[in-house]
Amino acid sequence: MTARVETAPPRANVKSRSATRNLARLRAPFSLRCGAILIDYIILVAILACSTLISRLLGGGARSAGNSSETVGILLAIIAAALDLGVLPGLTGLTAGKWATGLRIRRTDGRDIGIGRAFLRHFVGYPVSFITLGLGFLLAAFTANGRSVRDFIAGTLVVREVPSGPAS
Predict the structure, then answer these.
(1) CA distance 93 to 140
(2) Tell me, what DSSP letter sits at residue 1?
(3) Angle at which helices 30-58 and 135-142 cross, to 10°
(4) DSSP state of 8
(5) Using 50, 70 and 90 to split pLDDT, how confident is the model at 6?
């Protein structure tokens, strides 16, 4: 009798296939994605609104003080956008809105997206979605895996966060 040796498929392939299936199962609902975008933009608009309010309060006779506070507000909003939409998702997969709604950005194979891909997704993908009059955002409601134009551009997927801890 001879023994027959069977080789198992490489572990990385099995893991990536199962990760892809799990990500598809956990895809984010369109309504939560809209809520996450809304929260992110409310944060950025609040920074601009506060700086405008401060500039109006200081604006009476001090025209230069009002202009400088508006400039500071714009700079703060740009810095907040870069951190919230680029750096934070690149490191954690979360923006402030995604964290609040329980969503996470992942690559299509389940790995973290990285800072470069996060900047590509948010600062190239969002303008492309806006140029198409919002159809790029709406695409997420109609695709099987819930991907929008910015997700196709960056090779990402937004999934619902699975709570860690003991199962009930």
Answers:
(1) 18
(2) -
(3) 150
(4) P
(5) low
